[in-house]
Each structure stands twice: as structure tokens, then as C-alpha cells.
Amino acid sequence: MNSEELFKKSLQYVPGGVHSPVRSFKGLHTTPRFINRGKGAYIWDEEGKNYIDFCMSFGPLIHGHQDPEIKEAIIKALDNGWTFGACEKYSLELAEYIVNRICFIEQIRFTNSGTEAVMAAVRLARGITGRSKIIKFNGCYHGHLDAMLIKAGSGLAGTAEASSKGVTERQASDTLICELGDLEEVKKVFEDHKDQIAAIFIEPLPANNGLLIQDVEFLKGLREICNKNCALLVFDEVISGFRIGFCGMAGETGVIPDLVTYGKIIGGGMPVGAVAGPKKFMEFLAPLGPVYQAGTLSGNPVAMAAGLVNCKKLTPEAYARLDKYSENVVAIMQDWMDKNGFDDFQIVRYGSLFYPISTKDKLVRITQLPLNMNERFKALFEVFLNKGIYLAPNGYEVGFGSLAHNEEVQAELKRRLWT
Ligand SMILES: *Cc1c(COP(=O)(O)O)cnc(C)c1O
Asked: Does the first or last residue of the chain, that is N or C, have fewer Cβ atoms within 10 Å of its Cβ?
């Protein structure tokens, strides 16, 4: 069966044919490709056509598909069994490795996804402070937990409503929405909700609704506001962690959060997330503390073994190479786009994250994205797909560079674009 037939069949058994909405190619002319195999920077669909992959499973595969060392670690771990629901050495090794390399965390708790990590961080922040409200920014994504499926309300600054059916008004009322880049608004929301705000949650490099690069001064300002109000600053580094350097945006900017969440890269392509921070906060978690958090498959040896090798391979040299590769990839794309009817686009890049968008304006907030962006993205996506170049199938998603996008792949990208 080809991809189209498989998708048709999928629609019968699975809501919308997919197990995560962004995979559905909604709004595009073509049906999703069923991917059969990945190797290095390439994926192959059921028809046998291959693509240079710039989605990379939405970020986790920083070393490319089937990295041989990660594969070997997975196979080795598998040989001893894949889950025990008991203590085992790989999760200790990964915890020790990460804590020793990231100076501002002393303890880490592993989960199975980024969503779970953020869920734990929200509860932890509330448990530590004894307060119920949290601040979230318009345009940041933090997974699909109720507390975060909230958008700005139509009323006053800080008011909010659910962005999904099934999230109660009561939950929405505990999440206060602010605009990125606006410190004054954050200050006002703190004044309006004195001693009620447990934490500010932010993607320090917002990369789920375009790539909205923030001023370091803004992040520093949030740090100060949190200090003044005895609230926690939580960096959701599920996308930026281990990608913008090993220490993520916290390391990059020197703005130190109280808690940090990880996901995506941390498991080397296996389902892993984590919440981390100083001991004084992390020890609020059960079994030591009063904040409950758990997981049947959390810290399973296969995922932990993959994560460990994956992290050890992220050397300073690897980051320098990743940056160079990504710079080259973006230059090759931009050059072709400028000369082939996509000259209204810029490609915003930060390290190995890049975002083609049909405006030349500087983007800090989601409200600055151009109105025609979906139509323009659709056109670009389909041209690229036909040429054997796979972008994430949605105009709000960033592209992901990887260490597999080497000079050879860059030459192939250029060849595919120009033929
Ligand atoms: C992907 C992502 C999440 C959710 O992680 P899942 O593993 O998909 O649950 C949360 N926060 C950020 C910043 C993300 O990029």
C-alpha cells in the first residue's frame, strides 16, 4: 500500500488518521507520507522515495536517524530487558552525567515526555510556593496538559480562556497569559494577583509558533520580577535544551531558572522528559516531599541508555559543527528561495533551529506573524516535498538541523533545490 492508501485506512482506525495532530498535513494539498525508514539525514516513505529530513521527529534526533552509537547502546540495554519498574544503573548514570554538566541543577527526575515534565513542574511550583496561579506567554507551547492549553482572553491583560474543549474555566482562570517581550504587562499582572502567582513559565527560545527570539533583557527582567515576588521562574527547554548548547538557553543567556524542563533531545529519540533544579526545590517531590509525581515506564533502561550516549556525544566540537551545518543549510535554502519566487521569505535562525516565514519583519510575538503565512508556507512546503526535502508539515513549526546534515547532505540539498 502507498502512503495515500495507508492514510485512508488510518482514518478508519485512528482519529484524523494520526496519533499527534501536526502529523496530519491539515491544510496541505497532499496526504501524509508514511515513513518506512530513516538513516542519517534521510527518511524514506512507503513508496521508496527519499527526503532530506528537516523535521527530525520534531527535534529529538540531533545526531540523525539511526546514529550507530545510540543504536548500539539501545541494543545492548535491550539484551538485559527493557523495563523493570525498579532502580537500575542507566538512569543513575544519565542523571549524574546531566547534573554534573549543567551547573544550575542539582537533581533531576525523568518522565516519559515533555508534557509530563511540564505537568510535574507546574505542580511542583504550586507545591513549593503554596500559590495556585501561573503565568504563560501567548505563542509558547508547553505540551498538552490542561494548565497550558490556555490562550489570551478577549478582556483585560492577563485574562485567559481555554484553547481546547475539555479544559475547565476554573483551570483557565489559574493560568494568566502575557505577551512575549512585554515586561510592563508581566509586572501589572503580578500587581493584580498579589501573592497568588506561583511561577512564570516560558520557552526561553519560543520555537513552537515560529521562532520568536527574545531579548536577553526580557529574560533578565522576568528573573528580577520573580525574585521580587517570591515566584519561581521556570524555563521550558524541551526544544532548546541540549540543542542551544548542552545547557540550553539558560547557559546561553546566563539567566538561571529555578526549575527547568527537558524533553525531545534528552532521550536520543526515545520517549524521555525531565524536570530539574536545585535540591531545595526538587526535594519537594515524592517520596521525600509532598508533591506527587510518578511513572510506570519512567527511567526505563533502554531510553536511559539511548539518552546517555546521545548526551555524551554532545561535545563543544559537536555544537560548533552543528551550528556551521545549520548556517550552511539555511544559506543554501535562502539563496534558492530568493531566486525562485520565494523572495518574500526570510529564514530566521538560532543555532540549529530555523524558520522560513513570508515576511522580512523582526518577529518577537506571535501576533507579528503575517496573515498570508499559511498560504505561503503551503506553497513552499509542497515545492520542497516534491524536490525530496521534508519540512515539518505546518507553517508554525520550525526546521531542525542535525549533526547528520553534513557537507555531503548540504551538497545534495543544493542539487535537489536547483534541479
Ligand atoms: C515539544 C514540547 C513540549 C511537549 O513535549 P512532548 O514530549 O511532545 O509531550 C513541551 N514544551 C516544549 C517547549 C516543547 O517544544
From this structure: C
- 141 an active-site residue? yes
* Residues 142, 263 within the same domain: yes
Q: What is the number of the ligand 1 atom nearest to the C-alpha of 20?
A: 8
Count up the domains in the chain and report the number. 2
Average pLDDT over residues 301-307: 98
* Beta-ladder partners of 389: 52
Look up residue 40 and give its DSSP letter: B
Tell me what pLDDT residue 175 has: 97
- Tens of pLDDT, residue by residue over 315-327, are 999 999 999 999 9
Give backbone dihedrals phi and psi of 312, rounded to 5 degrees, phi first: -65, -30
Instruction: Mark which of 296, 312, 328 sits at the end of a domain.
Output: 312
Q: How confident is the model at residue 69, as a pLDDT? A: 98
Q: Please, are residues 204 and 235 in contact by the beta-carbon 8 Å criterion?
A: yes
DSSP single-letter state for residue 215: P
Atom of ligand 1 nearest to the CA of 118: 10
Statement to judge: residues 248 and 331 lie in one domain: no
Where a domain ends, among 291, 312, 333? 312
Distance 411 CA to ligand 1 centre (A): 32
CA-CA distance, 174 to 161, in Å (whole number)?
Answer: 10
Handedness of CA 112, 114, 119, 124 (dihedral sign): positive
Give the sign of the dihedral formed by CA 219, CA 216, CA 162, CA 165.
negative
What is the extent of the structural domain holding 238?
Answer: 68-312
How far is the C-alpha of 173 from the C-alpha of 170, rounded, in Å? 5
Residues 354/358/362/367 CA torsion (nearest 10 deg): -100
Task: Give per-residue pLDDT as tens, 244-278.
Answer: 999 999 999 999 999 999 999 999 999 999 999 99
Length of the chain: 419
C-alpha cell belonging to residue 399: 526546521
